[in-house]
Design brief:
11% of the residues lie in helices and 16% in strands. The chain is an alpha+beta fold and 91 residues long. It has a domain at 18-75: Alpha-Beta Plaits (2-Layer Sandwich). Bound molecules: iron/sulfur cluster (2 copies). Residues 22, 27-33, 50, 68, 70, 72-73 line the site of one iron/sulfur cluster.
């Protein structure tokens, strides 16, 4: 039984922002991303949906993102600064 209705698997490390986000609503549990990750960052759960098990190991190489056939993977730079209310171009 799933906990909550979240479609994304996010960071597992306390206080860390995951560099990789898996959109579980798009994921087909093919295992490509976790299989190709050279750092073993991604580990599939019992249903085959990958989770970010070792975020600190991620090199942001984007192999997982580029090879996901469902475009379910998003790799982002680690947040080195906060995006706090500096939106421009609104309106
Ligand atoms: S490659 Fe994409 S579809 Fe396949 S398991 Fe990873 S996230 Fe899911
Ligand atoms: S960006 Fe590279 S190191 Fe990070 S999870 Fe994806 S394949 Fe692994």
């Amino acid at each position: 039984m799933a906990t909550g209705a979240s479609a994304d698997t996010e960071a597992t490390a306390p206080g860390a922002i995951s560099p990789v986000v898996i959109d579980a609503s798009l994921c087909k549990a093919c295992g490509i991303c976790s299989g190709l990750c050279p750092k073993g960052v991604l580990e599939p759960d019992q249903g085959g949906i990958p989770g970010v098990a070792h975020a600190d190991e991620c090199t942001l190489c984007r192999i997982c993102e580029l090879h996901c056939p469902e475009f379910a993977v998003s790799v982002r730079a680690r947040a080195s600064r906060r995006a706090s209310g500096s939106f421009e171009g609104e309106g």
